[in-house]
Amino acid sequence: MVDILLRRRFGLLGRNISYSFSKGYFTEKFNNEVFAGNSYENFDISEINYFTELIKNNPDLKGLNVTIPYKEQVIPFLDKLSRKATLIGAVNTIKFTKKGKLKGYNTDYYGFKKSLEPLLEPHHKKALILGTGGASKGVAFALDELNIPYTFVSREAKENIIDYDLINATTFDNFQIIINCTPVGTSPNIDACPNLPYEFFTEKHIAYDLIYNPAETTFLKKAKERGAIIKNGHDMLIFQAEKAWKIWNK
């Protein structure tokens, strides 16, 4: 097993990712002698068009994770997608195949689903998804698998999307799971939070934030003050990272 896993490079594709969870997680994982020889690094590019050059200059890469803002933008640069990545419309894991092809996968949905399931009670019937980017698509797919109806929230109302101004006490009565898929509240802007009427959170609600830095965002703090169950994105990241590792090694 050791021989198979030796001398392989992996990394994270994103923008402004010095804070990255993935690099620290995989570096620590690779410090285990079983995985000796593997390395993980950040590939911080200012726009997606630099991706082609990145691949050309790093022919020994075996796998990449993908984060904001490239989960959707990277798709045209890939040779193929897994069935679930196609359905979701976003990629957060890329496998470099033995034939030199780039195949996109989505493990976000798996990580989110696995971390949310233990919190669910029969009264958690519907979800609000704050944000409409690549991360929110994986969340929506997971909710579909859990048979939980959802509605997207964005700054501008569109078809099947409501805006924040429409959220009121009735909304909170109807939606018991509120999921922040936006970067609002990420360090260093830790005082920021989505524009919600937080006074309507109750002990019947789950507030889930995909952000993991800080561990307790302002969004989570305000929801907790009203008795809501809270969860950050740390466990989701671990689950999705381990799923990516399996994909790279299959």
From TrEMBL:
Pfam families: Shikimate_dh_N
Domain Shikimate dehydrogenase substrate binding N-terminal as annotated: residue spans: 12-94
Xref: SUPFAM superfamilies: Aminoacid dehydrogenase-like, N-terminal domain (SSF53223), NAD(P)-binding Rossmann-fold domains (SSF51735)
Pathway(s) the chain acts in: Metabolic intermediate biosynthesis; chorismate biosynthesis; chorismate from D-erythrose 4-phosphate and phosphoenolpyruvate: step 4/7
Origin: domain of life: Bacteria
CDD domains recorded: NAD_bind_Shikimate_DH
Coiled coil start-end: none
InterPro entries given in the database record: Aminoacid_DH-like_N_sf, NAD(P)-bd_dom_sf, Shikimate_DH-bd_N, Shikimate_DH_fam
Keywords: Amino-acid biosynthesis, Aromatic amino acid biosynthesis, Oxidoreductase
Protein known as: Shikimate dehydrogenase
